[in-house]
User: What shape does this take?
Amino acid sequence: MTSERSNLQTLSALDRPNSYIGKTVPRPNLDRLMQGRGLYVSDIELPRMAHAVFLRSPHAHARIVGIETSAAKQMPGVIAVVSGSELSTVITPWVGVLSHLKGLKSAPQNAIAIDRVCWQGEAVAAVVAASRAQAEDAAEHVLVKYEELHAVTDMRAALDPATPVIHASLGDNLAFERIHDAGAVDQAFAESDEVVEAEFVFGRHTGVTLEPRAVVADWNAAEARLTIYQGTQAPHMVQNIAALHLGLKESQVRVVCKDVGGSFGIKVHIYADEMATYALSKLLRRPVKFVADRVESFNTDIHARDHRCKGKIGVKRDGTIMAFEIDDLTGIGPYSMYPRTSAIEANQVVNLVGGPYVTGNYRARARVVFQNKNVMCQYRAVGHPIACSVTEGLVDLAAMKIAMDPVEIRRRNLIADDAYPCASPSGLRFEQLSHHAALAKLVQMMDYDALRAEQAALRVSNIHRGIGIASFIEVTNPSAAFYGVGGAKISSQDGVAVRVDAQGSVICQTSITEQGQGSESLTAQIVGSVLGVSMDRVRVILGDTDNTPYGGGTWASRGAGIGGEAALQAAKTLRKNILDVAAAVLQSTPSELDIVNNVVVNVGDGEPRIDLSELARIVYFRPDTLPPGIQPELMATRHFVPREYPFAFTNGIQASWLELDPDTGFVKLLKHWVVEDCGTIINPQLVDEQIRGGVVQGLGAALFEKCVYDERGQLTNANMADYLVPMSGEMPDIDVGHVVTPTLESELGAKGAGEAGTAGAAAAVTNAVNDALRPFGAIITEIPLTPQVILTALGRI
Amino acid sequence: MKASAFAYARATSVANALELLTAYGERAKVLSGGQSLVPAMNLRLVAPDLIVDIGELTELRGAAVKRGVLTIGALTRHADLLKSPEIAAHAPLLKDAVAHIAHPAIRNRGTIGGSLAHADPASELPACMLTLGATIIARGPGGERRIAANEFFAGIYETALTPQELLVAVELPLTPKNSTHFFHEFARRHGDYAIVGLAAQASIKDERFADLRLGFFAVGDRPLLAKSASKLVDVAVTSAVLSEAASALDDELDPLEDQQATPAMRRHLAKVLLARCVSLLLARPDLCAGASA
Ligand SMILES: Cc1cc2nc3c(=O)[nH]c(=O)nc-3n(C[C@H](O)[C@H](O)[C@H](O)COP(=O)(O)OP(=O)(O)OC[C@H]3O[C@@H](n4cnc5c(N)ncnc54)[C@H](O)[C@@H]3O)c2cc1C
Assistant: This one.
């Protein structure tokens, strides 16, 4: 089902003959990146630049008894060795809480630990030297005396009265708790024919960006200005936070973000070592570079998804789902991350469980606890994979119990496509979703019945394959409801400025950022389409707080939907301005004119009237020839934020087809399908690859990725040999299909697509594994699904 | 991370390399393909004062057959082994094994000498050396030493080599014409070190093993030439015989625990490999069915 756009009185600028919307056009930044001419933070070299290396705690929890730096200071090339208390003269601590997450508490965190370290990897001192190698040499000579403290590592024990409290001032290790109760849950369970329960366990994992976190901070004392070059998703947020804690005005901080080698949410936060780097530059009055190495990345890049969630579902024999109930527990490390907090993931789990389904009976509790491990926070598809795995796992268990086909139980319970607008059991408002259209398309794409027949035939010859299905909803285009209402200075609106230069080319400045997902391309596609200018004449500038409008950046699947709409509106205004001047010059009226292929033409017969370049020449160099009273404005700026719905929900469904070897516990992924509905598709290839990339990260979670901590809080696999990221050799072909339901909140109609793949992939795989395990009577509700886990469940070891 | 500062020398001859190794002893490290040494240096797990790069000693590179012996120079790269007609003809097991080592970029640099000297218990080539009955040739200040493969591997990253010695070549008896082989390993991803692997060479007569050599790897602190193989030789292999061999194998194993597997899982997988190997080599699918029941 493809819903028609109904809110537009006239043909949209997007539907014009030469529109780039819906076309796979090459990304404008491709040549630059392919020819090695990108500019990553690591490439930046400034005069007098020094390199910072952080000495990191080997203990998960310890008191710092003393730091001896004199030997290190004598080492070649060393400029300074700085402790936490020394740095605290230039930077203030922070507390990662937001007021809309009621009851969320955390303790003050310093840029470099003072007196106490709370996780293995927390910085205890910075060594600044002329080169990274010299700083590392010197770091080996900094002597830190520690007194080890009890490390709280198991989240299940964190709330025991016998467990030491990590931050005494907080009273206990509970950071946040949310309880939700909707409908009549007890009654619904009582009326169910079957009630199924399970505990779902999720491995802690992380984003593993190709380019690690990196920052160059350059305090220019003469200008009293700090320039921060950083691979970040949210430059204005960094500007705000850096200024706040360094005692500066925002106008004294410029954040420049050139090329970024992947982020996935890892680079949307403010890290202590980055704050320390800003402060070191101010303290030492020179540029300071910090580039995390791979071991540091594993120990300090935010982790995510460490959840244990008990789930319960009630079902009637006819397949009607009566109620969902969950009890979720997650351990977030010793501090709630700044400034987005570490309660969002659990909060999302509560929000999203049961989301695709009709039942209104839903009870949930989520508890977020402190522990002495690396910090956890938002990573691609925040909370979605947990909520989806729990929901879809429960739905499959219920189906199994009543012997109903997994597709059929979904068909009977997914919210009907004509039931909108409506709300989820947790109160989220849906504008228009398309679960049934997506399901129908998926079944057809994968030829579900044929696959089931193949599965049955192969089972006879001892080949065990499984099919897993997972429906999902995805939060995109967040409004201020996400962070702003809680007091965070994180903008939910974005701005775009477009102008025509003196030769009729277009320069576009946008506040969204590019980390590889195609922000530059989609902006140019929209602006080019609306203006009637070819894309090669549109240049997009992003990632510079001095040179772009104010805005949120790129995260939470918001770039296309919010930044894209701002681009559309700015370009529309500019187009009107251009046509106004053209009409004056041509003694016509704007409504009789159009711009096609860089030329102003007659609407009626398409006859070329005046080149944009010629018009620009007149406007900029011969304004004296314009009629009196005409002041051309060949520049326009517009901002956009969704106001009606707090989030533009998208939906979709995924399926996995895999083979399980019961002798070895190995799983081979054979095929993966996704049908998703992100509304208007601006660039089909970019959307499909976002989906595929997202699926791959979800498959990583399903089969491979896990940060393995021992009971003393030591991360034991902080390297690329032991932490297994998914690689192409193990990835199946991923077929992507679309249902298109544009949001009516914007003229563009685009919703987000960046996280859909990650949201449902692991759930589909887990369901497929359990489907394959059926003949063995084993059920697994834990990821990653390693051979060890599978063999154990099968009783083979 | 960056490696600690080190001095670098490019050896001009084997004699020159040996001089440097003699002078520096344990403070020097030989650099072959660098695929194990350099990552360890970058993690500062090792910090040699001197690197002796033997990369230009072309006389150490290549495989040749002479007088019924296949000699492979220490600097022969994994990628060379894959392409070499001599290896394909006279040690086809090696060709199969090498395909499982890492990824093309690493195979283009990593060498057989480096792999054997490094002696990672999860490596493919050390086990192959046991299976194929290789002799490892080392040269040191006192001249040349010939070390039987089953005496060469001494533990995790430990060999019979002294710090002053250079591994220069390995010698393999030519694989007999009527011989057959099996190579398989279980690894989480393509190119990862194995959780458990098996390199086997056999000759079969009248549907029985006339000879069977089973080189297991990643089942202990060094590769293992399983004695339990003898239980399968010169007998009609039945499920009972196989399971007796499997339990004898179990007694020989001393697997370690690591990120990927517990000892129990390694034992289990080694037995699965044994069953699959025997069943495949004897073309007896029935022998495998037992394992998956
Ligand atoms: C990502 C990755 C995956 C890998 N996966 C596998 C795998 O699956 N299986 C596998 O077997 N290997 C694997 N390797 C290791 C690879 O095969 C190495 O190349 C090999 O183990 C060492 O060979 P090298 O020539 O690179 O030795 P180097 O790294 O140069 O040296 C290794 C050690 O041996 C010593 N040494 C080297 N040559 C000699 C010599 N001639 N005489 C005496 N001492 C010497 C060195 O001093 C050093 O201590 C992997 C490596 C990487 C980076």
